[in-house]
Amino acid sequence: MKIRSAVLRESGVTAPFASSLPLHIEEVELAPPGPGEVLVKMIAAGLCHSDLSVITGVRPRPLPMSLGHEASAQVMQVGAGVDNVRVGQTVALVFVPSCGHCSPCMEGRPALCEPGGNANARGELLTGHHRLSLAGSHINHHCGVSAFSDHAVVSARSCVPISEDIDPVEAAVFGCAVLTGVGAVVNTGQVRPGASALVVGLGGVGLSALLGALASGANPVVAVDVQQSKLDLARELGASLVVNAKDPDAVEKIREF
Ligand SMILES: [Zn+2]
Ligand SMILES: [Zn+2]
């Protein structure tokens, strides 16, 4: 089928990107899902710094590549052998597909899946296939998702079913920001109840880390940013103290708290 997708053909072009326009909306060919794969229709996608890192070339990836890696979508068709999602279901698309069998997966760390990471570096789906092309030439998948498209074929192992009572637009951030921010607190930091936590920077990842710290029972939880609107939101979400990093007394205020 023909789809529209935001394709990057050259990285490292001159900023500002509003002038150099590194992404092009192209009509490209999307092959049907093979075994273990799923055709989805995008509902919402987030723009993440990792997309920017591919555009700038800081994170080299095979080009051309259809970008976007944090999204919610509706399942339209499933390939042979897919049993974790069904047609019509809403799913979050995660930025690392997990095979379920390698050592990180077996240790309960699916975000570090080795075959998943290798497939992402090659611009392939976890199944080893490319399903995007133009005039017979492959277009690479970004993190197995390529969310800046109206439709995508992804590995079923990139899909996490989302409960119907969650707004699918909000569910899009589960695919990267939430699992990065909450994962940093719960898995890497192993924050325990009663521990103090400090979150610096309240973007999607930082606000997710804040929620992860609160859910872990951390107290106090201090939130730092330079934007008052972010600080207000952090306070609303339950931060014990919010501090504007522009405040010359910021460090003292946190130490004294
Ligand atoms: Zn991301
Ligand atoms: Zn794995």
Automatic annotation (TrEMBL):
Residue span(s) of domain Alcohol dehydrogenase-like N-terminal: 34-163
Signal peptide range: none
Record keywords: Metal-binding, NAD, Plasmid, Zinc
A matching Pfam family: ADH_zinc_N
MF terms in GO: S-(hydroxymethyl)glutathione dehydrogenase [NAD(P)+] activity; zinc ion binding
Entry GO CC: cytosol
Gene Ontology biological-process annotations: formaldehyde catabolic process
Domain Alcohol dehydrogenase-like C-terminal per the UniProt entry, residue ranges: 204-256
Stored PANTHER family: ALCOHOL DEHYDROGENASE, ALCOHOL DEHYDROGENASE CLASS-3
Descriptive protein name: Alcohol dehydrogenase
Underlying gene: Adh1
